[in-house]
C-alpha cells in the first residue's frame, strides 16, 4: 500500500517531520487559551494557575499518549471518531465526534472574536472585517491539508516563540515584575482555572493527525512529539501569565491579555504582543480546523481527496458556524473557552481510556510504542475524575448554579 493509498474512509497516510508534529501540538494549544489564562486566573493568582496547569497538562498528556498507542495499534489512518467506532462502536464514535466538535467549534468561536477585536484595535477597522481577514489564511491552509498545515505551523511557531521570549525578557528587564503580585494564592479559584486550563491543553484530536503523518516512516517518534509539544506548551502557558500578572497585577489584566500587556510596554511592544496573539490564534485555527475537517470526512465516510465538493462541504461545516456565532456576539471570549473545555474534556478523557483497553485486546497489530507507567489504572481514574468534574462545573455554569465568584 503506497503513502497515497486512500482508505475506506478516504484518509491516506502523509509524511511530516518530528518537529512539524511538535509544531502541530504546540500550535493547537497555544491559541486563544494562552490569551485568556491571565484574565481567568486573576482572582486565584499565579500560584493557583501553576497548580491548574500542572494537573491539566499532565492528565491531558496521559490521555494523548493513550490515543497515540491506539493509533499505532490500528492499520488504517483513522481520526478520533473513526478509532472510537472501530473499538467502541457507534455510540463511542458519536460521543468522541461530539467532543471534538464542541471543543473545536468553541475554540474557533474564540479565535474569530479575539482576532477580530485585535485587528480592529490595531488598524482601526470594524471587527467583522478583522475576522474576515483572519479567516482567509486560516481556511486556505486547512484546504491544502496535513503537509501544508505542518509546514505552516513550524514556520509560524518559531516566530511566535521568538516574540514571546523577547516580550517576556523585555518585561523582566524593563519595568520588571513585583513578586508580591505572583504570590497571591486563592485555592478556592483553582476549580474554574482548571476548567480553562483543560481547554488550553486539550489537543487529543490532533494525535491521529500526527500518527497519520509519522506512522509509516517514524512511528516511534509519535510519543516524543506529543510530550515535547505539551512541555513547550506548559512552559509558554506559565510564562505569559508570569510576566503579565507580575508586571500589571490582577486589576489591570484584560480579557485578551496582549491588549493590556503590550500597551504597558510601549508602542513597539504593543504591536509585537498583538502580532503574537494573531499568530497564536492562526496556528491553533489551522491545527484545530484541520482535525475538525478530517473528523467530519472520516465520520461521514466522505472522500478526503478527489472530491472538492465533499472537502468544501466539510470545510464549510467547521468554519461557517463559529464565524456566525462570534460575529453575532452570541458567545463571550473566555466563556466560550470554559464551556468548550469542560464539555469536551469529559468525553476526551473517558473515551481514550476505554479505547486503550479495547485496542490492547483486539488491535490490528503490536505497536511500535506502548504507554507504560503513564497508563497505570490510578492515573486513568484520576484523569476521568478530574475531567469529569470539569464537565460538571461547565454544566452548572451553563445553568447558572455555580457560586457567583466562579462565574
Automatic annotation (TrEMBL):
The chain crosses the membrane at residues 21-40, 46-67, 87-111, 123-146, 155-173, 185-203, 224-248, 268-292, 312-331, 337-357, 378-402. Its main location: membrane. It is a multi-pass membrane protein. It is found in: Cell inner membrane. Pfam families: Trp_Tyr_perm. Keywords: Cell inner membrane, Cell membrane, Membrane, Transmembrane, Transmembrane helix, Transport. Signal peptide: none annotated. Gene3D superfamilies: Amino acid/polyamine transporter I. This is Aromatic amino acid transport family protein. It comes from Georgenia deserti. The lineage of its organism: Bacteria, Bacillati, Actinomycetota, Actinomycetes, Micrococcales.
Amino acid at each position: 500500500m503506497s503513502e497515497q493509498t486512500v482508505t475506506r474512509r478516504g484518509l491516506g497516510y502523509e509524511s511530516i517531520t518530528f518537529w512539524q508534529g511538535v509544531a502541530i501540538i504546540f500550535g493547537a494549544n497555544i491559541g486563544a487559551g494562552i490569551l485568556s489564562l491571565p484574565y481567568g486566573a486573576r482572582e486565584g493568582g499565579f500560584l493557583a494557575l501553576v497548580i491548574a496547569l500542572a494537573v491539566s497538562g499532565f492528565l491531558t498528556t496521559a490521555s494523548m499518549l493513550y490515543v497515540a498507542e491506539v493509533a499505532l495499534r490500528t492499520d488504517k489512518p483513522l481520526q478520533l471518531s473513526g478509532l472510537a467506532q472501530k473499538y467502541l462502536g457507534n455510540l463511542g464514535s458519536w460521543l468522541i465526534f461530539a467532543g471534538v466538535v464542541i471543543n473545536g467549534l468553541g475554540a474557533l468561536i474564540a479565535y474569530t472574536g479575539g482576532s477580530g477585536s485585535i485587528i480592529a484595535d490595531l488598524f482601526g477597522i470594524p471587527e467583522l472585517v478583522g475576522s474576515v481577514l483572519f479567516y482567509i489564511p486560516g481556511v486556505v491552509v486547512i484546504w491544502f491539508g496535513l503537509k501544508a498545515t505542518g509546514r505552516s505551523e513550524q514556520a509560524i511557531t518559531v516566530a511566535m516563540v521568538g516574540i514571546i521570549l523577547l516580550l517576556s525578557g523585555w518585561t523582566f528587564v524593563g519595568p520588571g515584575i513585583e513578586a508580591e503580585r505572583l504570590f497571591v494564592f486563592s485555592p478556592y479559584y483553582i476549580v474554574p482555572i482548571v476548567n480553562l486550563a483543560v481547554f488550553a491543553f486539550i489537543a487529543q484530536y490532533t494525535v491521529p493527525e500526527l500518527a497519520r503523518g509519522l506512522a509509516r516512516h517514524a512511528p516511534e517518534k509519535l510519543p516524543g512529539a506529543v510530550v515535547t509539544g505539551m512541555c513547550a506548551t506548559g512552559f509558554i502557558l506559565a510564562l505569559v501569565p508570569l510576566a503579565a500578572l507580575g508586571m500589571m497585577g490582577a486589576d489591570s489584566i484584560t480579557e485578551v491579555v496582549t491588549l493590556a500587556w503590550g500597551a504597558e510596554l510601549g508602542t513597539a511592544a504593543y504591536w509585537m504582543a498583538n502580532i503574537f496573539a494573531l499568530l497564536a490564534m492562526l496556528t491553533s485555527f489551522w491545527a484545530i480546523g484541520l482535525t475538525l475537517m478530517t473528523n467530519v470526512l472520516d465520520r461521514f465516510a466522505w472522500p478526503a481527496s478527489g472530491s472538492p465538493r465533499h472537502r468544501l462541504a466539510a470545510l464549510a461545516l467547521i468554519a461557517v458556524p463559529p464565524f456566525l456565532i462570534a460575529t453575532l456576539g452570541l458567545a463571550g471570549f473566555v466563556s466560550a473557552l470554559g464551556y468548550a473545555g469542560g464539555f469536551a474534556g469529559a468525553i476526551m478523557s473517558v473515551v481514550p481510556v476505554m479505547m486503550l483497553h479495547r485496542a490492547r485486546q483486539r488491535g490490528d497489530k503490536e505497536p511500535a510504542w506502548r504507554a507504560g507507567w503513564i497508563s497505570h489504572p490510578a492515573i486513568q481514574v484520576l484523569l476521568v475524575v478530574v475531567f469529569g468534574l470539569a464537565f460538571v462545573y461547565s454544566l452548572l455554569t451553563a445553568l447558572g448554579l455555580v457560586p457567583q465568584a466562579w462565574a
